[in-house]
From TrEMBL:
One of its GO terms (molecular function) is transmembrane transporter activity. It holds the Pfam family BPD_transp_2. This is Xylose transport system permease protein XylH. The keyword Metal-binding does not apply. Coiled coil: none annotated. The lineage of its organism: Bacteria, Bacillati, Actinomycetota, Actinomycetes, Micrococcales. Its main location: membrane. It is found in: Cell membrane. Part of the binding-protein-dependent transport system for D-xylose. Probably responsible for the translocation of the substrate across the membrane. One of its GO terms (cellular component) is plasma membrane. Keywords: Cell inner membrane, Cell membrane, Membrane, Sugar transport, Transmembrane, Transmembrane helix, Transport. NCBIfam families: GguB (NF040906). InterPro entries: ABC_transp_permease (IPR001851). The chain crosses the membrane at residues 18-35, 55-88, 95-114, 120-140, 168-191, 211-233, 240-261, 287-311, 323-355.
């Protein structure tokens, strides 16, 4: 079998994983044409990253919850609640910005523990618990704010949501130096990790990915990261929240792919009874899963409030729907047991690019909702089709 036919056969078997990449590329090309080049304008690329950062943060936690076979409908309300508390702590009470951030993240953990207790140890379905949480924390947001708004936030909190890393000068007359250095280092890290993992799999006789596809995938990843680096360096440099997102993606991808806890999460969603019989502490795993979701919801609340420079009773409305959609569009299975952090990030980017591209070409919000609904339905239908095709084979 030739290298090309081997690669094509492998791609066919991995249609679920690569389909989302193909969809992202197709959407970018489509809107780049429809917007007459505005979509990939350096300023617009930076705006897309910053404006969708909170959804991407929520999507990381949400995909983990969905993989375990649960759902969290309360994250939007948690975003609003934590933003309100951050406003009270940092503006009305005058606490240092770093202390306000720590207290808000701790409060997010408490919120997650509250919901995790009812799901894991009391046995109430997550849908019901988080639906109640959505109402509880939306109400607490209004109680904390007293139906008013809090603004302005300290500069450091604003930087978390919409600030940029320091400018260290320019290379080649127009590229911001720090962004170029970070982009090159990120590319080298990704390539090095991919090569290292492939060598480990080959040594353990677990490698089934054709070499040709591995090279193409690696080259595409490197070019993509360097292209984003170039675009960001051509504008104002690296957004602070992009660094936060990068750290989260690396850490949580490692947790889900290489840690015992990550394997237990997949086991819960894949087959709960088998996980119990295998000795997995399912209650503890579920409890910690919701604690983690609470912390990420708090971080998203801080990012969004800082980005708006405003704590408002309506902050976070509908965010849970975007996070859930990002996870499913990114390849998470409805029945649990399948999904990746990277896929959720790509799903969130697809939603963000759809929103941004349709806004640029003047599509109304009514049709935007309609189109996003069709995309979500198509993603889930594709997942169901793949399962039936695999079962048939």
């Amino acid at each position: 079998m030739s290298a090309l036919s081997s690669a094509l056969k492998y791609l066919t078997s991995q249609l679920r994983q690569i389909g989302i990449f193909i969809a992202l590329i197709a959407i970018v090309i489509l809107f780049q044409v429809l917007t007459q080049g505005v979509l990939l304008n350096p300023q617009n690329v930076s705006n897309v990253i910053v404006q969708n950062s909170y959804v991407l943060i929520l999507a990381i936690g949400m995909v983990m919850v969905i993989i375990a076979g649960h759902i969290d409908l309360s994250v939007g309300s948690v975003v609003g609640f934590i933003g309100a508390v951050a406003g009270v702590l940092s503006v009305r009470m005058g606490l240092p910005w770093w202390l306000a951030i720590i207290l808000c993240l701790l409060l997010g953990a408490v919120v997650g523990a509250w919901q995790g207790f009812w799901v894991a140890y009391f046995g109430i379905p997550a849908f019901i618990v988080t639906l109640a949480g959505m109402l509880i924390f939306r109400g607490l947001t209004q109680v904390v704010l007293g139906s008013t708004q809090i603004t302005p936030f300290p500069d450091e909190l604003r930087s978390l949501g919409g600030g940029f890393l320091p400018n260290l000068g320019f290379l080649f007359g127009q590229l911001e130096t720090l962004t170029v250095v970070l982009g090159v280092l990120a590319t080298a890290f990704l390539v090095g990790q991919a090569v290292r993992q492939r060598l480990i799999r080959r040594r353990l006789n677990l490698e089934d990915e054709p070499f040709l596809w591995f090279v193409v995938k690696l080259a595409f990843t490197g070019v993509l990261v360097l292209a984003i680096t170039f675009l960001l360096a051509s504008y104002r440099g690296t957004p602070v929240v992009l660094v936060v997102l990068g750290v989260l993606v690396v850490v949580y991808s490692a947790v889900m792919a290489r840690s015992v806890y990550g394997r237990h999460i997949y086991a819960l969603g894949g087959n709960l009874n088998a996980a119990v019989l295998s000795g997995v502490k399912t209650k503890r795993v579920t409890f910690l899963l919701f604690v983690n979701m609470g912390v990420l919801g708090a971080l998203a609340g801080l990012v969004f409030a800082g980005q708006l420079n405003l704590a408002n009773p309506t902050n976070g409305n509908g965010f849970e729907l975007d996070a859930i959609a990002a996870a499913f569009i990114g390849g998470a299975a409805v029945t649990g047991g399948i999904g990746t952090v990277t896929g959720a990030i790509i799903g969130g980017l697809i939603i963000g690019i759809l929103n941004n591209g349709m806004s640029i070409i003047g599509v109304g919000t009514d049709w935007q909702q309609f189109i996003k609904g069709i995309v979500l339905l198509a993603a889930v239908a594709f997942d169901v089709y793949n399962k039936r095709r695999s079962s048939g084979r």
